[in-house]
């Protein structure tokens, strides 16, 4: 029996031809015309990469500072010897041994953790708790730094989002909300693509990007033109 198409998808197909590929500004305009959900949907760029996910030197991950913000309230905890400055910068929680004790007791009520290099020595004791949840600070993602104040500000105010390739070679990058203007979304999508395109591993000889699309939480995907990434 053929799968039943939802009313939302049926309505979206009346807005645009979903079999076509679109330029960046066209794709954002198409997405804006789709029927909206009852909540403010998250908008993402999705990509399939022509890399070998089994090879560690072909892992793709990165950080995007979205110029128009992410639209998401991010809860930040700072593991630092100077908690007051981190709190003044906007951290939701800050401390060291007291927070580590809470984490050991099962507390993980935050989205991003930052830490000083010295604090990382103590955080080894809770790596088994934070690691599987993707909450362990990491120098590669900029969350292990002497400048905890700057890191907190970037995360809370600067629209900082992380992305990481999954085991099947797919990447999703948050670029905002449906409530954003088309101009704001276009800015964010371009920023995300700039970082993604630059993240191509040096050892990849095959075509880096095999597909690229834009969608929101409950919308169909709008395919982006291959001319955007043909040279990769």
Features:
10 strands; 2 domains; 3-stranded parallel beta sheet; Ribulose 1,5 Bisphosphate Carboxylase/Oxygenase; 5-stranded mixed beta sheet; Rossmann fold; 31% helix; 232 residues; 22% strand; alpha/beta
Describe the structure.
Helix 2 (24-33) crosses helix 8 (182-198). It contains 8 helices and 10 strands. It is α/β, with parallel strands linked by helices. The strands form 3 sheets. It has a 5-stranded mixed β-sheet with strand order 1-10-9-2-8. It has a 3-stranded parallel β-sheet with strand order 5-4-6, with helices on both faces. The chain has helices at 7-15, 24-33, 83-88, 97-104, 117-123, 127-130, 148-157, 182-198, and strands at residues 21-22, 42-49, 61-65, 76-79, 93-95, 112-115, 160-164, 170-177, 209-216, 222-224. Strand 4, helix 3 and strand 5 (93-95) form a beta-alpha-beta unit. The N and C termini lie far apart (40 Å). The radius of gyration is 20 Å and the shape is globular. It has 2 domains: 7-70 and 159-228, Ribosomal protein L1/L10, rRNA-binding domain (Ribulose 1,5 Bisphosphate Carboxylase/Oxygenase, 2-Layer Sandwich), CATH 3.30.190; 76-157, 3-Layer(aba) Sandwich (Rossmann fold). Helices cover 31% and strands 22% of the residues. The mean pLDDT is 91.
CATH third-tier fold name of the largest domain: Ribulose 1,5 Bisphosphate Carboxylase/Oxygenase
- Unreliable segments of 5+ consecutive residues: none
Helicity, as a percent range = 25-40%
The named CATH superfamily of the largest domain: Ribosomal protein L1/L10, rRNA-binding domain
Class of the largest domain, according to the CATH hierarchy?
Alpha Beta
Q: Quick one: overall form?
A: globular
């Amino acid at each position: 029996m053929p799968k039943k198409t939802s009313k939302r998808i049926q309505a979206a197909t009346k807005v645009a031809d979903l079999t076509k590929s679109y330029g960046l500004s066209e794709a954002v305009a198409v997405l804006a015309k789709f029927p909206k959900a009852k909540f403010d949907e998250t908008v993402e760029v999705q990509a399939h990469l022509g890399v070998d996910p089994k090879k560690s030197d072909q892992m793709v991950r990165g950080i995007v500072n979205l110029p128009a913000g992410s639209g998401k309230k991010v809860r930040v905890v700072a593991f630092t010897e100077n908690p007051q400055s981190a709190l003044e910068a906007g951290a939701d929680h800050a401390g060291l041994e007291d927070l580590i004790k809470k984490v050991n007791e099962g507390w993980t009520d935050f989205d991003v953790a930052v830490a000083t290099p010295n604090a990382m020595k103590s955080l080894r004791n809770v790596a088994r708790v934070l690691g599987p949840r993707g909450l362990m600070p990491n120098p590669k993602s900029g969350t292990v730094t002497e400048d905890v104040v700057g890191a907190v500000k970037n995360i809370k105010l600067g629209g900082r989002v992380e992305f990481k390739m999954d085991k099947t070679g797919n990447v999703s990058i948050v670029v905002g909300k449906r409530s954003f203007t088309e101009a704001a979304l276009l800015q964010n999508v371009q920023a995300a693509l700039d970082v993604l395109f630059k993240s191509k591993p040096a050892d990849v000889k095959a075509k880096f990007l095999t597909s690229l699309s834009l969608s929101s939480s409950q919308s169909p995907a709008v395919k982006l033109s291959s001319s955007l990434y043909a040279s990769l």
